[in-house]
């Protein structure tokens, strides 16, 4: 048996995950020399180097990578054990790790508000990111549950749909096409367009529709955030396609409008997914059921420019 302590493994796992001794010390609220000495003792116990420092970057060696996988399994099992014990004691207590795509940030935090009131013993870590990064997190089994619009076909996932997430063409209110109805999709050819970044699911959905109709938009600007795109539209840089949910806070005085293009909205749904082989913790299951039950009952703030959000 390798004489490693749980504390050493926790320190190692944090350094490996964050790629930095300093950031690990900050997260664990201990000093950097303590982090270094714990890793040093662990390295000695294992008998092989765990990290390699090249310039300013820290890399895991092969032994380090093996240990990182082992640590993830150990800490997941321990976490599940703690949750089960709390459940046996009649309290739901522990951590829920969620990762959601960018558009879900307009409702998941609100749902979490009531969830956390019902289960005060549950702490939540919520990561909001794009389609591609969610896929990477799934591959590394980083989170309990994922909210996505387009579950990855090439991964073995269990996914349940729960709300509609339509994509609409968004423009500045005074756009010349704002008062037109049933606009020919070919008109997109001439419009300066603001596009989400590579790896965005929104971008993929737009690209698919445009390819079907042989349209190539003039991409004026590429941005990695829906909110930044809204600002760029307001700034007159062009039009874009966004989830209707990104517009829920636009009031009558807002600067944006939805253009009535043919073949829009692009119909999509949100799914809650997890790796098919993953044994969900009691907490993850509690949240999953809560999400499926409560999300259809949610009322979204009415915006003057929106039709029905859940269409
Ligand atoms: P994205 O995903 O942030 O990757 O574009 C949003 C969505 O699919 O709704």
The hetero molecules present are:
2-phosphoglycolic acid
The helix/strand class is alpha/beta
Q: Note the beta-strand portion.
A: 15-25%
Q: How many independent structural domains?
A: 3
Helix content: 25-40%
Query: Can you name the CATH architecture of the largest domain?
Result: 3-Layer(aba) Sandwich
Number of helices: 9
Query: What is the helix/strand order?
Result: HHHEEHEHEHEEEEHEHEEEH
Blueprint (SSEs and pairs):
Layout: H1 6-18, H2 21-28, H3 32-46, E1 51-54, E2 57-60, H4 62-88, E3 94-101, H5 108-118, E4 122-129, H6 131-139, E5 145-148, E6 157-164, E7 167-172, E8 192-196, H7 201-212, E9 218-223, H8 226-234, E10 240-243, E11 256-259, E12 269-275, H9 282-294
Helix pairs in contact: 1-2, 1-3, 1-4, 2-3
The structure holds 2-phosphoglycolic acid.
Residues 101-103, 130-131, 149-150, 165, 196, 200-202, 243 line the site of 2-phosphoglycolic acid.
What is this structure, in a nutshell?
This protein has 311 residues and is α/β, with parallel strands linked by helices.
Provide key terms for this protein.
Arc Repressor Mutant, subunit A; 3 domains; D-Maltodextrin-Binding Protein, domain 2; 5-stranded mixed β-sheet; 9 helices; 3-stranded antiparallel β-sheet; globular; binds 2-phosphoglycolic acid; 311 residues; alpha/beta
Would you give an account of this structure?
With 311 residues, this protein is α/β, with parallel strands linked by helices. The chain has helices at residues 6-18, 21-28, 32-46, 62-88, 108-118, 131-139, 201-212, 226-234, 282-294, and strands spanning 51-54, 57-60, 94-101, 122-129, 145-148, 157-164, 167-172, 192-196, 218-223, 240-243, 256-259, 269-275. It folds into three domains: 6-72, Winged helix-like DNA-binding domain superfamily/Winged helix DNA-binding domain (Arc Repressor Mutant, subunit A, Orthogonal Bundle), CATH 1.10.10; 92-163 and 269-306, Periplasmic binding protein-like II (D-Maltodextrin-Binding Protein, domain 2, 3-Layer(aba) Sandwich), CATH 3.40.190; 167-267, D-Maltodextrin-Binding Protein, domain 2. It is built from nine helices and twelve strands. Helix 5 links the parallel strand 3 and strand 4 (122-129). Helix 1 packs across helix 2 (21-28). The structure holds 2-phosphoglycolic acid (PGA). The site of 2-phosphoglycolic acid (PGA) has 13 residues, from helix 7.
């Amino acid at each position: 048996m390798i004489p490693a302590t749980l504390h050493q493994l926790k320190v190692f796992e944090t350094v490996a995950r964050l790629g930095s001794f300093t950031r690990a010390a900050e997260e664990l609220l201990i000093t950097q020399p303590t982090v270094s000495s714990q890793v040093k003792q662990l390295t000695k116990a294992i008998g092989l180097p765990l990290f390699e420092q090249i310039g300013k970057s820290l890399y895991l060696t092969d032994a380090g990578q093996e240990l990182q996988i082992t640590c993830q399994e150990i800490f997941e099992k321990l976490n599940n054990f703690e949750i089960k014990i709390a459940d046996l004691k009649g309290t739901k207590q522990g951590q829920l790790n969620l990762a959601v795509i960018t558009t879900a940030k307009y409702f998941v935090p609100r749902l979490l508000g009531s969830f956390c009131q019902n289960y005060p013993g549950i702490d939540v870590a919520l990561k909001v990111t794009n389609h591609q990064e969610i896929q990477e997190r799934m591959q590394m089994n980083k989170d309990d549950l994922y909210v996505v619009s387009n579950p990855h076909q090439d991964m073995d996932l269990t996914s349940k749909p729960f709300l509609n997430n339509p994509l609409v063409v968004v423009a500045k209110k005074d756009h010349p096409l704002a008062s037109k109805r049933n606009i020919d999709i070919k008109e997109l050819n001439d419009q300066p367009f603001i596009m989400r970044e590579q790896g965005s699911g929104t971008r993929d959905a737009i690209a698919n529709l445009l390819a079907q109709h042989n349209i190539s938009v003039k991409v004026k600007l590429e941005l990695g955030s829906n909110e930044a795109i809204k600002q760029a539209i307001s700034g007159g840089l062009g039009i874009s396609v966004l989830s209707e949910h990104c517009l829920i806070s636009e009031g009558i005085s807002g600067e944006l409008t939805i253009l009535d293009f043919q073949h829009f909205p692009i119909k999509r749904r949100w799914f809650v997914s997890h790796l098919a082989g993953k044994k969900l913790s009691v907490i993850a299951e509690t949240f999953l059921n809560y999400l499926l039950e409560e999300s259809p009952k949610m009322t979204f703030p009415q915006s003057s420019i929106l039709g029905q959000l859940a269409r």
